[in-house]
Design brief:
By secondary structure, the protein is an all-alpha fold. The chain has two domains: 39 residues; 35 residues. Helix 1 packs across helix 2. The radius of gyration is 25 Å and the shape is rod-shaped.
Length: 75
């Protein structure tokens, strides 16, 4: 996953200038900083999509083989 840079000092000052208490602003910025690990980028989603397609193709191929095998067994 990709990380982003947050200017914590500037963000705290911006929140304070908007009327937020310093401790609250610091807590908000800390929460935002920790949330970085939870973000998925467009590239992350593209890789996941490719993996899902690959798994789907494997399942479809397995279903075709199973169907042919069952046709052979039934005959």
């Amino acid at each position: 996953m990709t990380t982003y840079t947050l200017d914590t000092h500037a963000t705290i000052k911006q929140l304070e200038n908007a009327g937020m208490d310093t401790r609250q602003a610091e807590a908000v910025v800390a929460a935002i900083s920790r949330s970085d690990a939870e973000l998925a980028t467009k590239q992350d989603l593209a890789v996941l999509k490719a993996d899902i397609w690959r798994i789907g193709a494997s399942i479809a191929g397995g279903a075709v083989l199973l169907n042919r095998f069952l046709d052979w067994v039934i005959q």
